[in-house]
Design goal:
single chain; 128 residues; alpha+beta; 2 domains; 3-stranded antiparallel beta sheet
């Protein structure tokens, strides 16, 4: 869905959301006028990407890309100029990062090693 409400983008990420200018409609009541701001975010579409089936519903990722097209166009409508910038990226690889889905935290390798060393130490003390 290309139009949504504003998203809280994690620190260090560039927010690509573009505010939509909603036309004023005088016949709407005050509750409808107080709708949340609508925002457009660009999207990437992957076709035939079986390797992405295990990505979480939401999270962060590092993308390796190659810019294959870039253009800037300026149009004038009713004396007002609007500049749009378009970029097409060839996505060569993606590395999933931190998931924002809520799930039980799994111990990482360092935690597992620490717990193993603690267990081994306790076993040695019990044998003494």
């Amino acid at each position: 869905m290309p139009y949504t409400t504003k998203v809280n983008v994690p620190e260090g990420f560039t927010d690509l959301g573009e505010n939509l200018k909603m036309p004023e409609m005088h016949h709407m009541d005050s509750e409808e006028n107080e709708q949340e701001e609508r925002v457009h975010y660009p999207s990437l579409y992957f076709d035939n990407a079986e390797s992405l089936k295990d990505l979480p519903k939401e999270g962060t990722a590092t993308i390796h890309f190659k810019k294959v097209m870039e253009k800037t166009t300026t149009t004038e409508i009713n004396g007002k100029s609007e500049t749009r910038h378009c970029v097409e990226l060839q996505i060569n690889g993606i590395k999933a990062g931190e998931s924002t889905e809520s799930k039980e935290s799994e111990p990482d390798d360092e935690d597992a090693i620490d717990k193993g060393l603690e267990a081994a130490s306790e076993t040695n003390q019990d044998n003494d």
